[in-house]
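Protein data:
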Amino acid sequence: MQSIDHSTYEALRKGAHVLEADGSGDKVLRLADGRMLKLFRRKRLFSSALFFPYAQRFANNTRALEQRGILCPSVIAVYRIPSIQRDGVYYTPLAGETVRQLQDTTQETDTLRARLGAFIAQLHEKGVYFRSLHFGNVVQTPENHLGLIDIADLRCQARALSDSKRLRNFAHLLRYKEDRQWLLGNDAGQTFLEGYRQALPHNRQAPLIERLRPLLD
């Protein structure tokens, strides 16, 4: 993590467009060069973020995902900005549209559901546990591949996720009523579940799907 002074920060953000902010200030900036600057603040005086900053977690997670062949933003630098009491990650965004943006615009909704099921199975098999998994954090690229964004709240492990972690992750995915209806309503869940099943190792397909099915009914 590199510490930068205020003049360097101001030069970096010159001409930026604020995409997200709250009462404490800017959170996400689209810079003049088209890249992004995501700012993090430590909300409590004593927290894990003091020793393991969220900006650094974001950067570490991009490396972990890249090692697993999962598309994600490409980090350029991680900054500490004392003058605004923020840490920042400067990165090239993952091009494409989120699943949430595509929900009501694509005519190939079943294909998207099946692709999403297969993608989540891929994450789980590669040991990726993403607590913030939702349709706004999954991007479909112009090449019709899926990837992840906003990945500070993500853990990667060496082995595939346990069944209990998969169930918890599905609960996170389905916590929004509108998303659940789009994914599971009118028997659409069978398409999603079949996409997930086909991406699993053959010997894991039947027992795991039986455990997941009640959650998706």
Remarks:
- The mean pLDDT is 88.
- The two ends are 46 Å apart (CA to CA).
- The domain at 97-216 is CATH 1.10.510.10 (Transferase(Phosphotransferase); domain 1).
- The chain has two domains: 2-92, 97-216.
